[in-house]
Amino acid sequence: MPTTRAKLAELDPVWSQIIEEGHVAIGQEPLLGGLIHSSVLHHGTIEAALAYRTSLKLASGEMSEQMLREICDEAYSEDPELAAAARADIVAVYDRDPACHRFLQPLLFFKGFQALQSYRVANWLWRVGRRDLSYFFQMRCSEAFGVDIHPAARIGRGIMIDHAHSIVIGETAVVGDNVSMLHSVTLGGTGKEEEDRHPKIGDGVLIGAGAKVLGNIHIGHCSRIAAGSVVLDAIPACKTVAGVPARIVGEAGCDQPSMTMDQILRSGA
């Protein structure tokens, strides 16, 4: 008879794939056996594995791994959307990052994915009114990963943050589903204004390395922002923008720029 853990894996294909890949990885590199057992094979669900991995990465002398683990376990128990979003994020990384060959890799090795899951727990804390604790998660995420996402920001599913160094996402920013961004992206404000002051990124947008999107502006769905651009004005859907300040230089060139990850500017596209 299949065990309870096996039955759960059958109902969760992403987690089932991660478990299978974990066994394969140990066979190929036995020295990683301890890491993979503690991070993956020891756990019965993806929620438990995510809570373990997040608490391990964010633990410090100020707050123990055990305390953080209890907070993360509570978050995943109270809000199933957190793990659902994490599954979509894993698939997004696997589909879009040519350096990702297994579902296992984001969970174990990719700080963009790990930072995003830390943000998701912080966002849950923010939404249930535990603001100071959410700020602690933000601080530790910034210190551990070099990724600074305000816990009040709203970020959808299927997000891929490639390399993920020096990402900054402000308090009132909104990021839609299936967005891809590279390192050194800033979704920031333009000064000391309060209230709604950060960008709103539509679904399927691709944001190139080093791009800065500033102010309460809307970036239309399935648009492309070229690397190094500074975007100060709203962008219609399905356009490509480039430059400082950014200007429309053509159409997006495809239906889903965030999926194709094509960042080459071509004439008329």
Automatic annotation (TrEMBL):
Identify the pathway: Amino-acid biosynthesis; L-cysteine biosynthesis; L-cysteine from L-serine: step 1/2
Q: Which Gene3D superfamilies does the record match to this protein? A: Hexapeptide repeat proteins, serine acetyltransferase, domain 1
Q: Which Pfam families match?
A: Hexapep, SATase_N
Coiled-coil stretches noted in the UniProt entry, renumbered to this chain: none
Q: Write down the chemical reaction(s) this protein catalyses.
A: L-serine + acetyl-CoA = O-acetyl-L-serine + CoA
Q: What class of enzyme is it?
A: transferase
Q: Which InterPro entries does this entry report, sorted A to Z?
A: Hexapep, Hexapep_transf_CS, LbH_SAT, Ser_AcTrfase_N, Ser_AcTrfase_N_sf, Ser_O-AcTrfase, Serine_acetyltransferase, Trimer_LpxA-like_sf
Cite the Serine acetyltransferase N-terminal domain residue spans from the record. Answer: 14-118
Q: Name one GO molecular function term.
A: serine O-acetyltransferase activity
A cellular-component GO term for this protein: cytoplasm
The catalytic activity of this protein is classed by the Enzyme Commission as 2.3.1.30
Which GO biological-process labels does this protein carry? cysteine biosynthetic process from serine
Task: Note whether Zinc-finger occurs among the keywords.
Answer: no
Q: Which domain of life is it from?
A: Bacteria
Query: Mind listing the UniProt keywords for this protein, alphabetically?
Result: Acyltransferase, Amino-acid biosynthesis, Repeat, Transferase
User: What family is this?
Assistant: Belongs to the transferase hexapeptide repeat family.
**Protein name, entry field:** Serine acetyltransferase
